[in-house]
Amino acid sequence: MTSPPTEISHSRVAATYKAREVEGVLDLYFYRPIGLRLAEFFEQLKMTPAAVTLLGGICGVVAGHLYYYRDLRINIVGMVLHVCANALDNADGQLARLTQKETRKGRVIDSVADHLVFASIYVHLTLRCFFEDPSPAIWLLALVAAISHALQGAAADYYRSTYLYFVANGRRIRIDSSSSVRLDYRRCNWRQGAWDKLLLALYLNFTRQQEVLAPHLKKLRETVSELFQGQLPAWLQVRYRNLAGPMLKWWGLLMTNTRMLVLFALLIIGQPVYFFWFELVPLNLLFVYLIFREERMAESVQEVAQQWRDLA
C-alpha cells in the first residue's frame, strides 16, 4: 500500500530542512515547498547551486531598483521579483542538499548574493527618499540602518548555526572559526586564485563579526569541540535545545522574511523611509536583548561543561 502523495511531498520537503525548529512559518509553508520543486527542476537542467544563487541575486538586485520608483505598480513588480529571489535563495540550498554539493564556497557565495540584494534595496530606497526630501540626513540614517542589518544578520546566522551544531550532534553543520578561515586565506594566492581569495576575505570578515558579537558562544563551542570531539552527549544536546530553542522564533524576526513583509507594507502606503527606522529601533532593541540572553545562556552551559570535565 503506497503512501498518499501529500505525505510523500511533505517528507521530501522535510528532508531538505536544516531543522524544522529553525525554519520560519513562511519558509515552512511557502518557500520550502516551492524551493523543493525549483531545486528538482534545476537538478534536471544540471544547474549548480551557485548558478541558482546568481539567478536569485539578479532578481533581488532588480527588485531593489524597482523600489526606487514612486509608482506602486512598478513597486509591485519589484515585490514579485523579491519573492522570487527569496524562493531561489531557498532553492539553492535545497539543491545543494539534494545533490550533496554543500560547500563552504557555496555558502559564502550565497551570503554575498544576499548582501548585494539588500545593498540594492538600501541604495535605491535611499535615493528615492533623498529625491523626495533632499536632506543629507537620509544617507546617515540609511547607513546606520544598513550596518545594523548586517550585524543582526551575522549574529542570527551564527546562533542558528550553533543551535544546529548542538542539536544535530555536530555532524550536520560546519561552523568555521576566524582562525581557520585566516589560515586558508593566507594559503590562497591572489595570482592563482583571485576569486577564491576574495571570497575568503569576505568570509573572514563575516566570521570575525560573528565571534566579536558572541564571544561566550565562541568559547562554548571551542570547549565542547575539545571535550567531545563532535560527539555531543545527549544531556548536553537536550540542555542546549531547552535553553536556546525558545529564542529561535525571536531570532527569526531578524531574518529576511520580517523585513520583506514590513517593506512591502511601507511601499504600499508610500512611506518607505520608515523601513530604516524599523531597522534601527525595534529590530535593534530585539537584537541587543537576544545577544544578552544568548551570551548568558552560553556562559551557563560553559560552566556545566567545565564541571563535567573536572568530574570526568
Please give the structural blueprint.
Elements: H1 5-14, H2 25-44, H3 49-66, H4 72-98, H5 104-132, H6 137-167, H7 178-187, H8 194-213, H9 215-228, H10 234-244, H11 248-252, H12 256-268, H13 274-311
Overview of the molecule:
It is built from 13 helices and no strands. It has 312 residues and is mostly helical. Helix 6 (137-167) packs across helix 8 (194-213) and helix 6 (137-167) runs parallel beside helix 13 (274-311). The longest helix is centred in the C-terminal third of the chain and has 38 residues, at 274-311.
Poorly predicted sequence stretches spanning 5 or more consecutive residues: 1-8
Note the overall shape.
globular
What is the CA-based Rg, rounded? 21 Å
Instruction: Give the DSSP E fraction (strand runs of 2 or more residues).
Output: under 5%
Mean pLDDT: 88
**How would a crystallographer describe the biggest sheet?**
none
The number of helical segments is 13
H-E string: HHHHHHHHHHHHH
The overall number of domains is 2
* Proportion of helical residues: over 70%
Distance between the termini: 51 Å
**Structural class determined from secondary elements:** mainly alpha
The number of distinct β-strands equals: 0
Which descriptors would you attach to this protein?
312 residues; mainly alpha; 2 domains
Provide a quick synopsis of the model:
The protein is mainly alpha-helical and 312 residues long. It is 79% helix and 0% strand.
